[in-house]
Amino acid sequence: MSGRRIGVYVCQCGGNISDHVSVEDVVAAVQEEPDVVVARTAMFTCSDATQQEIIKDIEEQKLDGIVVASCSPKLHTFTFREMSKRAGLNPYEYTQVNIREQCSWTHTDDKAGATEKAARLVRAGIARTRLTEPLEPIVVQTVPRVVVIGGGIAGLRAALGSAEIGLPVFLVEKGARLGGWVGEFDGMYPHGKNGRQLMNALVARVRRHPGIKVFLNAEVVEKSGSFGNYEVAIRVKRDSAETQAETVAETVRVQAGSVIVATGFDAYPVSDGEFGYGLEGVLTLPEFKRLVDAAAGPLEFDGRPVRSIVYIYCVGSRQPEGNQYCSRYCCTAAVHASLLVTARGAQSGGEEGRAAGGAVRPRAAGGPPRQYHLYRDIRSYGKYELLYNESREKGALYLRFPDDDPPVVERAAAAGAGGSGYRLTVTTRDLLTGGEELTIPADLVVLVTGMVPRENDELVKVLKLPVGNDGFFNEIHPKLRPVETVVDGVFICGACQSPKNSAEAVTSGLAAVTQSAAMLKRGFAELDPLIAVVDAEKCEWCGACLAACPYEAPRQVEVDGKAVAFIDKATCKGCGGCVPVCPTDAIDLQGYTDAQIRAMIAGLLQELTLCRA
Amino acid sequence: MSTLVDPGLAAAVGTHEEFDAAACMNCGVCTAVCPMGIEVLPRRLFRYVLLGMEEQVLQETESVYSCLLCKMCEVNCPAGVHIAENVRSLRHHLNRKVFGL
Q1: Which residue, of A213, A244, A425, B90, is most buried by count of CB atoms within 10 Å of its CB?
Q2: What's the mean pLDDT in A429-453?
Q3: What is the mean pLDDT of residues A240-257?
Q4: How far, in Å, CA of A400 to CA of A376, rounded?
Q5: Percentage of residues in chain A having pLDDT higher than 90
């Protein structure tokens, strides 16, 4: 008997729980437990009305601990912590017990068994609540400065966005220039704007802004300190004054509250021989885009007018093995580039003579090149569908090839396919024409290549960035927390996270600005106090906790002349990894103490009599 | 046997009136609503023309003349392809090519 006053609420979840668990029996089984003052069921505990009732109970019955038996803590822990706060109860005096995902939904065939299990789980929750203590959130001061890594469109926009709301920025770019991929191209979708001009203007604004310090040829090599107050080491390579060839490195250390990672992507590296790559006239999409950008008038390749172009989609994307993801930008980028070619118009070549075999017929001189798009699925999503429509209306032909029978690119026979000097032929099956096999003569074959994650092993190690199976960086939640990572204060945006087009990269860059600024502008951040603490009397500093910690939170300090471990509050994530390895049992996890866990186990295992009241 | 793609056929078919079916997205509405149940018309046949598969076009001469030109397909076409005009162009071409008219 601890003299606590605990309220227990067992949720029906509108039948989700009560169809398979007798909630009345659960209440009957636990209402006589010591310290339980109130025990009742509710149709929806999370509803405003029931929350109001609980608040009334807390105030009238002077409750000092709450147990809600409902769904997963992932769903409603914060709901009921907030409710506790409103009732003047410390939010860490609240315990959530999961009797839906871990009970009613998993035992739909055994109501009696599910009811008993629910009663035991609730009793364990009560046992934990008897031993809860009021805890206060950890408050850390934040340094109002931002490190942005990557000088492409996402990084530049994030840097400018942060600087414009008054947060000074250190912009770190690995290469020798700012502007990234977008700065290399002319006309780009969505709006046909010239990427080079767009980026020149953006770079000029970044350069002019007094709040942004740019480091070129620079890399982040170290990050220390804790959340809200990181020290970031930037290694900058500079050409030495004496000899141009020799470069010297200098390390600059800066203090920052957050880090925004915008390291971008690489183009899918096509292997030699993949879809004929290596043959003259076979280009990747970026190579082709440069060719189109460089052409003043009608498209030429190797000094000859281009009469026929074949595009092969999904090169390096949506493969059964390897890159399984869709690279998202490439369908629209290829369609857009092909429209640019159409707009460049006529090639200067005149009438094509009709070949002896009768394969190629004469056609009017001065038309734009024939364009054949060999695709698996065209994913010109959203308003980019209009580009696809325009392309078809302007005469481009789309042929769908089978996933398991991709097109074959070959050098044309000496006389050229159809005897008219085409460099290449592409043989493919067209599912839209009943799977007929077709041979298309071509001057150019464009491999519509996707995006791959950029190699960034060093940065991943330094920032402890979470990397997904596909090699891109992972956010916490794709819908609700799309730019935050599991490392507090480290944000991701742009194509380092997943394939994105330039508009989407900017959107996520600005989202990262908002998230980072929300934290830095406040001046402080609150962290969950559910962390490990060391009992300095018991600790004999052996370093076992440090070795077990994935976040390097423990460090050696001196207390009354004795070396002991101290766990940094802002770095500790409360994973509990250090607790069992401590040989002197000196570490406890606040909110999940050994005593609480033992009490919960005892509560689970104790004799239970289920009797309907 | 692989068929060599021939960009000239559509132009040849379209000498009388322009042959234009590039906007077709192969949804199949035309086939579904055809009162004559002509399966090959128009979507596959038009692709034969666009891709220059003349042999396959000639094999379907019968189908081309079975069309009632009722325009049921045309009014239902979500891509706005002028199907009936294209069928007329095709007939014009076949008149010359097959029947020597």
Answers
A1: B90
A2: 94
A3: 79
A4: 6
A5: 82
Q: Is 0.90 surpassed by the pTM of this model?
A: no
pLDDT in tens, A116-137: 999 999 999 999 999 999 999 9
Chain B residues within 8 A of A395 when measuring between CB atoms: 22
d(CA A444, CA A283): 7
What is the rounded (10 degree) CA torsion for A274, A279, A285, A287?
A: 130
CB A199 within 8 A of CB A183: yes
Kindly state whether residue B89 falls inside one of the protein's structural domains: yes
CA of residue B75 relative to chain centroid, distance: 16
Ordered strands of the A36-42 beta sheet: A36-42, A6-11, A65-70, A94-98
- Identify which has the larger pLDDT, A602 or B5: A602
Which residue has 């086939």 as its token pair? B31
**pLDDT of amino acid A331:** 97
Q: What is the pLDDT of residues B35-66, one digit of tens each?
A: 988 877 777 888 899 898 999 899 989 989 99
Name which of A397, A399, A408, A409 to mutate to probe chain B: the one with the most chain B Cβ atoms within 10 A of its Cβ. Answer: A397
Q: Is B5 on the interface with A (CB under 8 A)?
A: yes
A-chain CB neighbours of B2 within 8 Å are 427, 437-439
CA A70, distance to chain mean position in Å, is 30
Mind telling me how many Å the CA of B34 is from chain A's nearest CA?
A: 19
Q: What are the structural domains, with CATH classification, of chain A? A: 6-135+596-605 (3.40.50), 146-264+454-524 (3.50.50.60), 268-351+364-443 (3.50.50), 532-590 (3.30.70.20)
> Domain range spanning residue B92?
8-97
Q: CA-nearest residue of chain B to A400?
A: B26
Task: Classify residue B15: in a domain, yes or no.
Answer: yes
Give backbone dihedrals phi and psi of A170, rounded to 5 degrees, phi first. Answer: -105, 115
Q: What total of structural domains would you count in chain B?
A: 1
Residue pLDDT, tens place only, A514-524:
999 999 999 99
Of the residues A309, A354, A361, the best mutation for testing chain B's interface (the one with the most B CB atoms within 10 Å of its CB) is: A361
Quick check: B8 and A434 CB within 8 A? no
* Residue A356 pLDDT exceeds 60: no
Q: Which of B1, B3, B4 to mutate to test the interface with A (most CBs of A within 10 A)?
A: B4
CA gap A434, B43 in Å, rounded: 11
Per 3-state DSSP, chain B is made up of helix, strand and coil in percentages (nearest 5) of 50, 0, 45
Integer angstrom CA distances of residue A44 from A65, A99, A423 = 20, 13, 71
Rounded to the nearest 5°, which phi and psi values hold at A445? -120, 125
Note whether residue B1 is domain-resident.
no
3-state DSSP assignment of residue A373? strand
Q: Which of B4, B9, B56 sits opposite A417 (nearest CB)?
A: B4
Q: Which of residues 33-92 of B touch A (CB under 8 A)?
A: 43-44, 47-48, 50-53, 56, 79
Take residue A296 and report the two structure tokens written for it. 């003043």
On chain B, the residues whose CB falls within 8 A of the CB of A399 are 51
